[in-house]
Automatic annotation (TrEMBL):
Transmembrane segments: none annotated. This is LysR family transcriptional regulator. Keywords: DNA-binding, Transcription, Transcription regulation. SUPFAM superfamilies: Periplasmic binding protein-like II, Winged helix' DNA-binding domain. Belongs to the LysR transcriptional regulatory family.
Amino acid sequence: MLDIRWLEDLIALAETGSFTRAADRRNVTQSGFSRRIQSLERWARAPLVDRAGIPLRLTDAGYEVLGVAQSVVGEVTHLRDRLTSHAASGRSTIRIAAPHLMSVNFFQGWFPQVEAVLGHLPLVVTSLNVLPCFAALDRGEVDVVICLADQAGHLFQRLPQALRPDPAVRALLAHDVLIPFTACDEEQRPRYRLGIGRVPVLDYPEDCSLNWSLDLARVHWPDVDLCRAGATHYSDGLRLMARRGLGVAWLPRSITTADRAERHLVRAGGPEFDVPLVVQAIRRQARLSADAEAFWQDLVAGRLGGPEAPPAGQITTDRRESVDPGLVRLRSGR
């Protein structure tokens, strides 16, 4: 049986790059920590850690498990906290479905904002891929879907006709942007540069909505030579892979603040390679509970905008962000 502590151990190991430091963080002996990682590997039936390198890094299978681990641990922790705080409130539960990524790059900043405006609300989030999110909304299993979408709304066009939401039931919460990031080389310059030779890409699978947004953008970069070096549904897994120098990953800017500040990640190309995104909430068309209806009206009125959301119509592509002068600007093809 899978032990959630093993998932927490893997997260600590990925973040520290060391069995010793990870064991200290988890408050166990190094030998005990190592045995728990081995137990997780036996459960996965695959090696999850490449122990030969210094600092060590995860295997491809390890990054796959890491993405799930981050989502599961985050959701379980959040669920426990919400159930504890709302058990005696007597209010109707507001049911939200969202892709796994939102737990990493949005909810952790947004929930405190919601609480500051509305007080304690019984919000319960279910993490699913985008298509199951909208299927659950259609079946009435959730009240609201919150997801990242490209600004033009092409994501919704990729949904089956019956699941495509009417613009009248959508509310803008925040802006984000996918930026191509890479690790630095020994001279603190971008390890890979878009437009200079063949560039390995750490990608999203075909059924991932962020891949749909990237597909739309890639048609404007016909002269850029890209080769897939790996793929996972989880942006945070791609983030750690990019930090290890394994390739270029298009990551939401919102999850890379610390990495950019410490130059663990830098741009692999100029702003012409950015993909603007919006965080949108989509409700059921049928009547919701009184609490959920009131919650939705607050969303529509803009009282619950996302963390650091700029005014409507602006994009969080930070033009003040350092762009290496050596990065080649290519024709956009537009």
